[in-house]
Write a structure and sequence with these properties.
The complex is a heterodimer. By secondary structure, chain A is α/β, with parallel strands linked by helices. Helix content of chain A is 31%, strand content 22%. In chain B, strand 7, helix 6 and strand 8 form a beta-alpha-beta unit. Classes of the chains: A alpha/beta, B alpha/beta. The structure holds adenosine-5'-triphosphate (2 copies), iron/sulfur cluster (2 copies) and magnesium ion (2 copies).
Chain lengths: 344, 328
């Protein structure tokens, strides 16, 4: 490990596994600069499940790609920031070391399984490859382990399916292959799961989430769970970070976030879920009017201003500083929802 | 509630069958029973939800009752008249009153056509007045769904996903249909936009009173919008019930599993969740013998493995296809 990569921080001792400070990622496109992630701070403790939620395009996947150093550059540019993993800044780690970290201590389940599986190898071979590389197993033994993992992620007839190519499997099965592959990693400290169950049927989703939870407890792995489903969040997360248009707008323990949301976007997001308790016998859903602003033309103000019922003049001018509400609960808003739930 | 309804349903489907021939590289062609003996009634103005896991035949059912697919068996009646036999001009007349809204607001709109032409197309096909009248109606329906008519000259890619779904809705409603099938109409949308579109559909339904078959794999969406719910499993209806009753007390073991598996957006109830079904969804090409659910069912007996249970009334207004439930 090089000296530049190791940084002494006060984070050691607080149980921090991953710490992101002031991360900004943009894409320099022909149409202009897309500020996909802006001044993001995030922390995941050992063994914790952090859910990252927010509207499509708000920067969830880009954040995950930044952690694993898979942001395509160009057009991507890491404008600023530090990503600490057990005290090491991943952003200054040599590519070779990063590669060995990926798939061993940090594993990832991607949002698009089709593009991340190799079409010319059987899925069994691809999973076995992880054992061959990281555990130096023989081909045959590695393949047998791959079959075990396919069974673990509830693929029916795993021995036969291991010999299938990705295109021969349904979307849900491909997703489970991705999960199996991530599980093949030797001692994952952190698993990043980008919408791992979105393409799955709900009974299968429930099984996979249960499986991830068991594995998490079993090996003490932390999970960064990216999702847009607040039901999944409510059932699996320890903490939740809410993003909107590239910014983190709120961050709190899961029960606290659902019971006492302070940011108007969080309140809107919770309210518009069909399964929200407040919509139980509702005639209409609470909805957020308007749509997400174009990241290309976004100014310095609060990106939610064009849809916010609490908007004030200063919201147009500056992005709010961090406010805290009780233990471990942060938000950024000039005119937050008051604690009782009524807007001020 | 349903007992007070108009006794003549708007649409009645009896024993609908839709098969697909599946040909592998090797071996003979196999028959896939995508919809296998489904019956349903839809009253004027009623919203009926259809839920079930991927591949259980929801879309095929929707397309078959609209006769976008020719049924392989069963009958369809529209306002008491047999619509299975009609074709050509007569079918066109019925089709005017029946519309479909699709899942994908990206691929269901022709990318090379201006939005106003997309929306006015059904009006032109069914010759609804002269050019001015068609323009007037197009602009009216655009305003209704919240798209400013000044954007009529734009192309679909110049709109957001939610706006494109509004365009799809405008196209479906241009002819003021009496019956609309929504197939995963909000599934591709972000939740905040999904809520806008669901509210819009409810507003439009209140104003125009069309009946709605609302297909979705998302139980919470179906629960929110429907009055009655049909639960499908491998081509068949396994339970039919008014929404409130179904959610309060699901009877069929599959419905129970589905409800138990559905994540609830409330972390405080996390610990009270019940056990979920094990096992995978079987292949529709080789459905299990007897009750299709038996390999995953905690209550399965020998009888379940031998014979498929009929869909029978098990309580007033409630039907289930399960030997254990009908035995009481
Ligand atoms: N390679 C790229 N080139 C240009 N822009 C990009 C690229 N990748 C991502 N972006 C932009 O960055 C922003 C954040 O994208 P990201 O994929 O992180 O969203 P997301 O939160 O994961 O959304 P979703 O829920 O739809 O997956 C988006 O506006 C996206 O268009
Ligand atoms: N045109 C077709 N040709 C052959 N098989 C088909 C065709 N359309 C559907 N099927 C098959 O019929 C079955 C039912 O499909 P259908 O699309 O109706 O399911 P669904 O319930 O709508 O699923 P989803 O939730 O994934 O949309 C599936 O096994 C599917 O593979
Ligand atoms: S009140 Fe202002 S700062 Fe807070 S979310 Fe609304 S627009 Fe943003
Ligand atoms: S018929 Fe038997 S197998 Fe089928 S759902 Fe009922 S109890 Fe279960
Ligand atoms: Mg993403
Ligand atoms: Mg479908």
């Amino acid at each position: 490990m090089t000296d530049t990569a190791t940084i002494e921080t006060s984070a050691t001792g607080t149980g921090e596994l991953l710490g992101i400070d002031n991360l900004s990622v943009s894409f320099h496109t022909r149409r202009g600069v897309v500020k996909a992630v802006r001044n993001l701070n995030l922390k995941i403790r050992e063994g914790e499940t952090l859910a990252l939620v927010g509207e499509s395009g708000c920067g969830k996947s880009v954040t995950a790609h930044a952690i694993t150093r898979l942001v395509p550059m160009p057009p991507g540019v890491i404008e600023s920031g530090i990503i600490r993993f057990r005290g090491t800044n991943l952003l200054s780690l040599p590519e070779k070391e990063m590669r060995s970290l990926r798939g061993s201590k940090i594993s990832m389940i991607f949002q698009e399984p089709m593009t991340s599986l190799n079409p010319v190898f059987t899925v069994g071979t691809q999973i076995a490859e992880v054992f061959v590389t990281h555990e130096k197993l023989g081909r045959k033994e590695a393949f047998a382990r791959a079959v075990e993992l396919l069974d673990l992620v509830k693929i029916p007839d795993p021995a036969k399916r291991a010999k299938s190519y990705p295109h021969q499997l349904s979307g849900g099965m491909r997703q489970r292959v991705m999960i199996a592959m991530a599980l093949a990693s030797p001692e994952p400290g952190l698993m990043i799961a980008d919408e791992p169950t979105t393409a799955l049927d709900v009974t299968i989703q429930a099984q996979i989430l249960q499986l991830l939870n068991e594995l998490k407890k079993g090996v003490g792995m932390a999970l960064l769970l990216i999702t847009h489903d607040m039901g999944v969040v409510a059932e699996t997360a320890d903490r939740v970070a809410v993003m909107y248009a590239g910014r983190k707008v709120e961050d709190a323990p899961v029960e606290e976030l659902f019971a006492n949301p302070r940011h108007p976007y969080t309140v809107g997001l919770l309210g518009c879920q069909c399964s929200a308790p407040s919509n139980r016998n509702a005639v209409r859903l609470t909805s957020i009017s308007g749509s997400v602003p174009d990241l290309l033309t976004l100014g310095d103000g609060c990106p939610f201003a064009n849809r916010c019922g609490n908007v004030k003049n200063e919201c147009m001018e500056s992005f709010p500083d961090v406010s805290t509400a009780g233990e471990d609960h942060e938000f950024r808003c000039h005119n937050p929802i008051t604690e009782s739930g009524a807007s001020s | 509630m349903s007992a007070e309804r108009n006794p003549t349903p708007l649409l009645a489907a009896r024993d609908i069958q839709k098969n697909f021939r599946i040909k592998d590289d090797r071996g003979p062609a196999q028959t896939l029973k995508a919809v296998d003996g489904v019956s349903l009634d839809i009253a004027p103005g009623e919203v009926v939800g259809v839920v079930g896991e991927s591949g259980c035949g929801k879309s095929t059912l929707g397309k078959t009752i609209l006769r976008m697919y020719e049924p392989d068996g069963g009958t369809l009646t529209w306002k008491g008249e047999d619509m299975t036999a009609v074709s050509g001009a007569e079918l066109k007349v019925i089709r005017k009153d029946i519309q479909m809204i699709f899942q994908d607001p990206y691929s269901s709109l022709n990318p090379r056509k201006k939005v106003k032409n997309i929306i006015s197309q059904p009006l032109r096909v069914h010759a609804q007045g002269d050019k001015d009248e068609i323009t007037r109606r197009t602009e009216e329906v655009m305003r209704e769904v919240g798209i400013n008519p000044v954007y009529g000259r734009r192309y679909p890619h110049q709109f957001s996903g939610g706006q494109r779904q509004r365009i799809g809705i405008a196209r479906a409603l241009a002819l003021e249909p009496e019956f609309v099938v929504c197939d995963e109409a909000v599934s591709a949308l972000d939740v905040s936009i999904q809520a806008q579109i669901l509210n819009l559909l409810l507003d439009l339904k209140d104003r125009h009173g069309f009946a709605n078959l609302f297909i979705s794999h998302d139980l919470s969406v179906v629960e929110f919008i429907s009055e009655r719910i049909l639960v499908m499993y491998l081509g068949r209806i396994v339970e039919k019930a008014p929404k409130t009753e179904l959610m309060a007390e699901p009877l069929h073991p599959y419905t129970r599993a589905l409800l138990a598996a559905f994540p609830i957006a409330d972390p405080s109830v996390r610990s009270t969740k019940k056990q979920i079904v094990v096992g995978d969804v079987p292949s529709p090409l080789n459905p299990p013998t007897g009750c299709h659910f038996h390999p995953r069912c905690p209550l399965a007996t020998d009888r379940c493995r031998e014979a498929y249970p009929p869909l029978v009334e098990v309580a007033p207004g409630r039907q289930a296809a399960c030997w254990e439930v009908s035995a009481g």
